[in-house]
Design goal:
By secondary structure, this protein is an alpha+beta fold. The chain has 14 helices and 34 strands. Among the domains are: about 210 residues, no CATH class; about 180 residues, no CATH class. The strands form nine sheets. Strands 14, 15, 16, 17 and 18 form a five-stranded antiparallel β-sheet that branches. A four-stranded antiparallel β-sheet has the order 1-27-26-25, with helices on one face. This is Transcription factor IIIC putative zinc-finger domain-containing protein.
Length: about 700
């Protein structure tokens, strides 16, 4: 089993642990968020396995500028919260976005602080460097780019109480174009938030194109709004007609929200046909469960720039057919959290919600979930009490409810028809028990100790649990330096890997059996296929096509790809007037070097095609797909995707796994004031992870 990670902090909220699709942890720790990033694998196999694998970054998230958080003047008590205004802005919620939203297709970290501000944080590219890139509350201002102080209802609307990232909405792949659209591979990123005005708002989060709008790196678009009515009783446990009931009814808030899986309701076959999908939304409003649905339609944008595949999104939030019945599914107060369980191609979608003394399980058939059928009798509602005994009969002790002061977990099996089988202790409970036993022995507590669970997170078939350990028969006193919490790992699968690097490696695919030459062949074919009418007046496109053809000559053995390179070189020679007879002739040979160009060729037609050393002005030859060497011996690394020589520092990005060097297209875009040739933008958009291992990029080593 993987070794636990000991953190010098105590979590500040429930669900304080988040595990991103990139393998990074985030832990809510008061005024800080601790981010754990996996270090590169140790090449020295003599050392112990899984020792010091994580680099820990303490990120202070409670500091805001005047532009990020405006001063709020005292107002009436219905609109103004002195608790939020004077709080220390500790972390009360955090979650990673689905992958593909942040820079280098990584995940964005959303952090909700006790001043009711929801911030987005992104890695700056270098390990240990993070920046706040957006404040979601600004989307509720009249001018999000220059937010002004608010009052009254507008102030309540800008206070965010809860949030959750929706599952990525993937557009079905279309057959047009050379590469997959970003919306097909990574999906459209949507965020559901609730505010103090008792509204649920669906937001679309987008990252600005590289090199553009550096002052506003992310855009937040409001798609739809769902107001909660104040007719139903939100706190039925209170005494009817009392002043307490009236106050609770007025102050009811949506404290937890969860978005279910997206199910397609309309799929077009053509590029211009819209795509629509629906999802159920569950909210704990006061102490009652509420449901409604989201319907999102994506339409290919007519204003999309060349090389991009942007979609315009429209949405509406309306009542679901189950909305009237949802509050009656349980008589107990729903305290959260709320989650959806679904595994394709299951015919059932299951909603799980925690009450004060039970686990609520509501299973919907897909036909009812997407409202293609309205048979309410098909809903299966099951409530499993959290009790001291699992089984009960006439001879044994009676089942009774008891408060849970320590860590208690249960595992259920999910099949095609919903939850099945009796609950059982999860494997992480045993791992936590072993750690608690060691804590008890070290301090001679005689068994008077308890473990408190702060959060669970999963990655593939491994579950991570965040917990702390405490004595129970004494007042616990500790200083900050004594604070400790532990992240432990466990799995319900017997064949999981004990190597954390193997666990977090990119998923297995058919390309793993390919050699680097096979991977390069795919990119070469992509670039050579762009030799069309658009390349006639674009010198940068011609330069990329020439580099791909030369790479095919020195690296590829296949007859088809070399013939493709020959045809592209003939077109380039006709377009530019350059003398490419050597390259065309060598397409018939097998893996032979292309010599550097002479001074006369650099002053002749088509000179922009050829690479020249920026140190000595000599020509650069083509000897391999990895290295470039000029006539005078200066050595450079070739980009792993465009195959151009990288001759300047600061222009590169690197694969975080295999360390392959690439040109950083965002840096190039900033140099050219946001403009990139369509082919350059297209190829770096289509191959947005490492070509050779599938790893994510980072700005530096």
């Amino acid at each position: 089993m993987m070794n636990p990670v000991i953190l010098p902090c105590v979590p500040s909220c429930f669900e304080a642990l988040a595990w991103s699709a990139d393998g990074d942890f985030a832990v809510a720790a008061g005024e800080y968020v601790q981010i754990l990033t996996l270090k590169p694998p140790n090449k020295d196999h003599s050392g112990p396995l899984n020792q010091n694998e994580w680099s820990i970054t303490r990120l202070r998230v409670n500091l805001f500028t005047q532009a990020e958080w405006q001063n709020i003047q005292p107002q009436n008590r219905d609109d103004f919260s002195i608790g939020a205004e004077q709080s220390t802005s500790t972390v009360v919620g955090l979650a990673w976005s689905p992958p593909g939203l942040a820079r280098f297709r990584r995940s964005v970290l959303a952090v909700l602080t006790s001043n009711l501000l929801l911030s987005l944080w992104e890695s700056a590219g270098m390990p240990g460097q993070w920046n706040r890139v957006a404040v979601i509350n600004h989307a509720f201002h009249l001018d999000p780019t220059a937010p002004a102080p608010l009052s009254g209802l507008e102030l309540r609307r800008s206070n965010i109480r809860s949030f959750q990232w929706c599952p990525p909405l993937h557009v079905p792949p279309r057959n047009s174009g050379l590469g997959p659209q970003a919306e097909s591979r990574w999906g459209v990123h949507l965020l559901m938030v609730t505010n103090d005005a008792n509204e649920a708002v669906l937001l679309r989060i987008q990252r600005s194109a590289g090199g553009k709008d550096l002052s506003v790196p992310y855009s937040v678009q409001k798609l739809a709004l769902y107001p909660f009515d104040n007719v139903q009783k939100h706190y039925p446990q209170s005494c009817p007609g009392s002043l307490l009931e009236k106050a609770l009814q007025i102050k009811a808030r949506a404290l937890s929200v969860s978005c279910g899986p997206w199910l397609a309701v309309a799929e077009g076959e053509g590029d211009e046909d819209p795509f629509s999908a629906t999802a159920m939304i569950a909210v704990s409003f006061g102490t009652r469960l509420r449901t409604f649905k989201a319907l999102v339609t994506l339409q290919k944008s007519d204003q999309a720039e060349s090389g991009s595949s942007d979609f315009v999104a429209s949405a509406k939030l309306v009542d679901h057919s189950t909305s009237p019945a949802a509050p009656s599914w349980t008589s107990r107060p729903v305290s959260g959290p709320i989650r959806w369980a679904y595994a394709a191609p299951s015919s059932t979608v299951t909603l799980t919600a925690a009450t004060n003394a039970s686990l609520l399980l509501v299973s919907f058939p897909q036909a009812l979930y997407n409202e293609s059928s309205s048979t309410m009798s098909a809903i299966n509602v099951e409530e499993r009490p959290l009790s001291g005994f699992v089984h009960e009969n006439g001879e044994g002790p009676r089942r009774y409810m008891e408060p849970v002061s320590g860590g208690l977990g249960a595992t259920f099996d999910l099949n095609g028809s919903g939850i099945s089988g009796d609950p059982r202790l999860p494997s992480w409970n045993r791992v936590m028990g072993d750690s608690l036993e060691q804590f008890d022995l070290d301090r001679d507590l005689g068994g008077q100790s308890v473990a408190r669970v702060w959060g669970l997170a999963s990655f593939r078939d491994v579950v991570a649990v965040l917990f702390s350990r405490h004595p129970t028969d004494m007042i616990e006193y500790r200083v900050t330096s004594d604070e400790r919490s532990i992240i432990a790992f466990a799995s319900e699968s017997a064949d999981h890997s004990n190597d954390i690097h193997a666990l977090l490696a990119p998923s297995a695919s058919v390309t793993e059996s390919w050699s680097p030459k096979d991977q390069r062949e795919a990119v070469i074919s992509y670039l050579l296929s762009s030799m069309d009418s658009e390349a006639e007046g674009d010198t940068e496109t011609q330069r990329l096509v020439y580099a791909a053809a030369c790479c095919a000559i020195v690296d590829q053995q296949g007859r088809a790809i070399r013939e493709h390179a020959r045809l592209s070189l003939e077109k380039l020679a006709a377009l530019t007037g350059a003398d490419l007879s050597e390259e065309i002739r060598k397409c018939g040979n097998k893996m032979i070097a292309v010599s550097a160009k002479t001074t006369a060729q650099f002053s002749g037609p088509g000179a922009h095609l050829f690479e020249r050393c920026e140190i000595c002005d000599a020509g650069i030859s083509w000897t391999s797909a990895n290295d470039a060497r000029c006539v005078e011996g200066h050595l450079f690394v070739r980009c792993g995707l465009s195959f151009l020589a990288i001759q300047e520092p600061g222009l590169s990005k690197y694969c975080s796994l295999c360390r392959t060097e690439y040109i950083n297209e965002e840096t190039i875009a900033q140099i050219h004031e946001g403009s990139l040739c369509p082919l350059f933008k297209s190829v770096f958009g289509a191959f947005d992870t490492c070509l050779y291992c599938g790893g994510k990029f980072q700005a530096g080593l």
